[in-house]
Design a protein that fits this description.
The structure is a homodimer of 552-residue chains. With 552 residues, chain A is α/β, with parallel strands linked by helices. Chain A has helices spanning 15-31, 56-72, 164-169, 188-203, 274-292, 306-319, 336-348, 359-373, 380-401, 411-416, 437-447, 456-460, 480-491, 497-502, 507-519, 521-525, and strands at residues 2-7, 36-38, 77-85, 94-102, 105-111, 136-138, 141-147, 175-179, 207-210, 213-216, 219-222, 226-228, 234-237, 244-250, 257-262, 298-301, 324-328, 353-355, 404-407, 429-430. In chain A, strand 17 (324-328), helix 7 (336-348) and strand 18 (353-355) form a beta-alpha-beta unit.
Chain lengths: 552, 552
């Protein structure tokens, strides 16, 4: 039996485009003599469609897409994910389903049993868990067909009280197929391999796994579809961050897998280090955000600091240097070296840049407000004012010329509220909002790995917002090495103050940092969507009340 | 048996305050000879604590609070909601639990079976559904103790496959107690009565129901705790939008309820019309947002239009006229009548106001940008610029003097993206973001019901953003009567384009409006939290992808 896996970049709700890509893959598979082609979970709609699932019209469009795809399945079978309506009068309205299409029609349907409802996942919001799984019979083989999370709950502590794969295993399957929509974080590639290998070994079956690739706003899918032999050997793994298509042959009787055809070099070097994975994920995230919104041009404010430098380099990589515009917006407090560093960077990247001084606008506001502010000392108001004037200028350029403004805030400053709402926190997309400051430095060094792009001075100088004379980040924050460790413990690992103090951090610093995080929730609420690269990003995966009074 | 119900305004994560309020109520109940006092679901933590539930430290604080409260339960029993740890190695880490405290300790615990996971609810994100319910025995009576949603799934179409109250009914209970955290929308009071009455009738039992009151950022709890006789008569219903405490006597043998003590006049007039409910809910929402964040003073930009007028009147009611600051920010396009209308309103409300002209700042930006914009026609850029300059000025005043900026966007314009990001879409809290424009007019008339507060001209003139000469909202949008109907059908009822065209709207208008809604998701993503008064508000209850390509 020849089995094709199609790793595709879908677009949520863009049925025409998704169906076309799917039908093209089926056509190609037919030409290669494939018996079964496997697509990802929720392929026809893209993932996650979120509350579009609550619209009958959207569900009907999913059905129409499945019907249309089924008509291409003549002489070939397809497994493909799409929602379906729960026929029972009890339970949620929908199932998260896997369709088996053959002979021009839907021949079989099964549904997801384990519905991830944590972090960025909301599946029980829409779907009823399925409790009556059965193997699928095709060409004399029994296929244990599961959907993503169905095979992930295999640790000692179980998140669910049922295990669909345990049920299927009792029916004597010959192979496992898992269709997934499993988003990226920088540990996901290794977790995925480990979980899939454990499944192959536990059930002693070959496993064919198909994932999404591409970005859907903040969620990044790295692909990494793979085939595992029954002995737990990873026989083949798809490239990351790009579409891919491969055909395997499952030998008669033996259940041994061999590669039959590949669009790509399977041995292509995959990014493996944390920073290279983050880098490639962010580049894809920027690129797909623009493509899927039908925009091409980005703009950002270049300060001479590390965050905007790294954002600019990533944007240039994602969109092409011709499609990125850098704007330097110096104020009376901007240092000469900042302007120089920014200019050198733009020139290194061959990116057009403008210099727009904000002094005139700043003065006009000083005059406008003088009646109200007269005699009062300068404070955070004047600092925020500079950041907001820059935002107004950048948004004016964005409006006039059709750029999307990229946000340059990093995760450390977003965490502690070190940023100006409607100022430097503006933008359509936050590129570095899930990257701690210390990781931004690592990214800068990675970007410079083969040639100097980001000026060394940008990397080596002490971080400063340059909103008052001589200001440094370290004036008001712990140094970033320590800050980022505490933030990681609190945000990713959800450690409490007691745990942190036990780890040796002073009570004073722990209390200060946690309070800053909790009392700046209102700022993060209005941040742009953040490209997610960690296990706990700000945004849809971290849901916090604003008026809470806890560790604050 | 004397049963007290305590309807309390909790503060999420503010354990000291919540425990104090709970202990005070227990003390008062003791003085009245009460046998059992009932508090709401998740009372000790406030509701919803959201992802704080994933912090061990937070859960431990819930346990400590329960222990402390139990020590007050000498000679009196209490039923109270709080999370508890699921002792099984399978399933979610927590239960959403009801504790029975007596004799200084925890005597019994049961858990919620039906976990709302839709709209603003995320309960399966945290909790395992409980499947082994049993009645609670106290003073010779069997109590069927359930938690909120447990008794709401009583229609013909069931959202859940189990029914805890059906199970409990078989154990011969004498009364039902339901503890709830059921947020307000303008149809909630009537739905609540209907659902509770149906339960009393179906199980032929008296029902004691305790809800939260008060606002937690966007979620508003109206209270409305109540007692229903076994014959379905609503014996007593608590006041809306305020704390309340009452004691009932359940006659020996008969299960007939009588009122024993009340803090308030139970017969106090309740708001009943949709608009009066929305009005009171919004006033509470503003007031609690400020109280719980320890702020007292609000600021807003007053345009002379209806949205800022209504917001100002609500803020004055919520915070007191001395705590609200109005700022008029006229531009070269502001009409004389707008300034007059705004001044009259501020004077009617006895609210201090300032007039700050934005022309100087606008000119400075024109000059700053002239090199880039020279020769290009004025467009949306210059319109947005005015809105953003106003935001910069308001935020400067906010920063300098400690005001919180109130957002004045209404639901209609938020829906279609008719507003400027980082301009009029700014603010700490959106007061009218869940109130359609036509409802804003109704609110204005309601505010004026006994004396003229909002100038008649503000209500009668055609809506305009006044960002270019002679501009009217109707230049680019369908008239609000029709627009709001289409938006309601699409947003609240989730009707598709086919349904809407079947209802008689033209394909052209339907297609335009739905496209506007779907393509302005990126703007709403960065809106402030919206006080929720409808069944489908923007924010946590409506989760949409940004890069989707559907009806767009």
């Amino acid at each position: 039996m020849k089995i094709a896996l199609a790793q595709i970049n879908y677009h949520i709700g863009h049925f025409d485009s998704n169906v076309l890509k799917i039908k093209n893959a089926i056509q190609k598979a037919k030409q290669k003599g494939v018996d079964l082609i496997v697509f990802a979970e929720m392929a026809v709609s893209g993932y996650p469609p979120r509350d579009f699932l609550e619209f009958d019209d959207f569900i009907q469009k999913c059905y129409q897409a499945i019907k249309e795809i089924a008509q291409s399945c003549i002489g070939i079978a397809a497994i493909i994910g799409s929602p379906s309506i729960n026929p029972s009068a009890k339970g949620k309205f929908l199932y998260n389903s896997a369709y088996f299409l053959y002979d021009g029609d839907i021949q079989y349907i099964t549904h997801k049993s384990l519905l991830p409802t944590y972090d960025i996942f909301d599946e029980y919001r829409y779907f009823e868990p399925f409790r009556d799984v059965n193997v699928l019979n095709y060409m004399g083989r029994k296929i244990a067909l599961t959907i993503c999370e169905d095979i992930w709950d295999i640790g000692d502590e179980r998140l669910y009280t049922i295990s669909p794969m345990d049920v299927l295993a009792k029916q004597g399957p010959d192979l496992m197929v898992n269709i997934a929509a499993s988003p990226f974080h920088y540990r996901q590639a290794s977790s995925r391999r480990e979980v899939l290998v454990r499944n192959a070994l536990r059930y002693n079956l070959p496993l064919f796994y198909v994932n999404h690739v591409g970005a859907q706003t903040e969620l990044l899918f790295d692909g990494g579809s793979m085939v595992i032999n029954r002995d737990g050997e990873i026989f083949d793994e798809f490239n990351y961050f790009e579409e891919d298509f491969r055909v395997y042959e499952l030998k008669e009787g033996s259940n041994q897998v061999s590669l039959f055809y590949s669009d790509f070099k399977p041995e292509k070097q995959k990014p493996e280090s944390k920073i290279s994975l983050i880098h490639d994920a962010l580049v894809m995230g920027i690129r797909n955000y623009f493509q899927k919104l039908s925009f091409s041009k980005a703009i950002l404010g270049l300060s001479g600091g590390i965050d905007s430098a790294v954002t600019l380099a990533l944007a240039a990589r994602a969109l092409g240097n011709d499609n990125v515009k850098a704007v330097l917006l110096p104020s009376r407090y901007s240092s000469e070296h900042s302007i120089n560093d920014a200019v050198v960077l733009a020139e290194n990247l061959n990116i057009p840049y403008d210099i727009i001084h904000i002094e005139k606008a700043f003065k006009s506001f000083e005059e406008t407000m003088s009646q109200w502010f007269d005699g009062l000392p300068a404070d955070i108001t004047e600092e925020n004012l500079q950041a907001r004037i820059r935002a107004v200028i950048l948004m004016s350029l964005s409006n006039k010329f059709g750029y999307i403004l990229l946000n340059t805030s990093n995760k450390s400053e977003a965490a502690v509220g070190y940023g100006t709402l409607y100022g430097d926190m503006c933008g359509g997309l936050s590129v570095l909002g899930d990257v701690y400051k210390t990781e931004v430095f690592d990214l800068a060094r990675y970007i410079n790995r083969s040639q100097p792009i980001i000026p060394e001075h940008t990397i080596s100088k002490p971080p400063s917002a340059e909103l008052r004379p001589g200001q440094k980040d370290s004036d008001s924050l712990p140094d970033y090495e320590m800050l980022d460790q505490i933030l990681y413990q609190y945000i990713e690992l959800r450690k409490g103050p007691g745990d942190l103090i036990d780890q040796g951090y002073s009570e004073e610093i722990v209390s200060k940092v946690l309070k800053l995080v909790n009392t700046s929730e209102h700022k993060r609420y209005q941040m742009p969507p953040v490209l997610r690269v960690s296990t706990k990003a700000f945004g849809m995966g971290r849901r916090m009340p604003i008026v809470a009074k806890y560790l604050s």
